[in-house]
């Protein structure tokens, strides 16, 4: 059951996917490392199984073989680059990745996963090495791609329009209005008096007086402000252009300066604004977690940090201390003063290895020490829930989705460049 390519769900390869036994041989050399025929055939078996599970038409054997060989060559070049640049995967990270694979396959422990691997005739050492390589590739992507991604607000707007089909600028607004009417044929003196009146009402509204009461007292609109002057939520193009333009820069709840139309003076308050194409109401899983972070550097090696956090976990589980107390005393980030409390988090909020470990924990459970680019963590899950997203959270979700898409596109471009720089020699099968 080899590990998946980065970003794929892993399932054990079934014995039925095994191909006829044949002598192994080298099919390609990547720089100085060989790619063997058995590696290609294992990848082919996994790909065929995944296509069958998804009811996809299988590829012709020759085409599938070429695709899997090229994928292996590309991965081999990336792994060489990762190792040359000093990236490593420690045993704790490997164990966390195996636990994720086990849970994806409805297995309760790594021991069960290893049993399944061996039952299917796969070499356990090779399986674990493949998992280690996939974790290494994920870390390589995180280091090479993530820091370079820039997602702007216009990018998010365009992504939401793409997902919803909304047109640029589509929005709905809800306004309240006080009208100080100016009759046709009014004298200059009367016009000046009414303008002064409008300016005074506007000043009082902006000073915080109850807008609805001012509407009832001063508005000359059809219903004399009996509804508080509320005009209702409607598409912006169904409001006069004067109203739209004069409230464009207002924040929700603000009152603008009086504006003049043929009917008179209008004092407008922005009650609500909905951007066209907002994502539909959705609920997402959220996790309430805490952590203790020990940073790695000249004064504290990664090994020392791992050992210290393992000792913290033993002290917590034996009742000698609490997670919160140890976090307040030792955690080396801003959450320390809160006892390590990170609050409620949504998917995509943390780096992948942190989120993966957190998602594998039950309520109240504490992880083993986890290494990330920030240092070494001890994680505790305090609760889980489903939460409806606010408009701001919907935009953040869209931002995360767009970031993932751009990261994948950037990684594919980067991987192609790494592959191009590698020396590759293809070998013919022995005769």
Largest sheet descriptor: 4 strands, antiparallel
Rough outline: elongated
Number of helices: 13
Overall structural class, as computed from helix and strand content, comes to alpha+beta
Low-confidence residue ranges: 1-21
Number of strands: 11
Oligomer: single chain
What topology, given as strand order, has the largest sheet?
4-3-6-5
As a percent range, the share of strand residues is 15-25%
Mean pLDDT: 85
Instruction: Report the span from N to C terminus.
Output: 30 Å
Helix content: 40-55%
**SSE order, one letter for each helix or strand:** EEHHHHHHEHHEHEEEHHEHEEHE
Topology, element by element:
Layout: E1 26-30, E2 33-36, H1 37-53, H2 61-84, H3 91-104, H4 110-119, H5 124-144, H6 153-164, E3 171-181, H7 188-206, H8 211-218, E4 230-235, H9 241-247, E5 259-261, E6 264-275, E7 283-294, H10 302-317, H11 323-330, E8 341-345, H12 352-359, E9 370-372, E10 375-388, H13 391-421, E11 424-426
Antiparallel strand pairs: 1-2, 1-11, 3-4, 3-6, 5-6, 7-8, 7-10, 9-10
Helix pairs in contact: 1-2, 2-5, 2-13, 3-5, 6-13
Explain the overall architecture.
This protein is α+β, with helices and mostly antiparallel strands. The protein has helices at 37-53, 61-84, 91-104, 110-119, 124-144, 153-164, 188-206, 211-218, 241-247, 302-317, 323-330, 352-359, 391-421; strands spanning 26-30, 33-36, 171-181, 230-235, 259-261, 264-275, 283-294, 341-345, 370-372, 375-388, 424-426. The strands form three sheets. It has a four-stranded antiparallel sheet with strand order 4-3-6-5. Helix 2 (61-84) crosses helix 5, helix 2 crosses helix 13 (391-421) and helix 3 packs across helix 5 (124-144). The longest helix is centred in the last third of the chain and has 31 residues, at 391-421. The two termini are 30 Å apart.
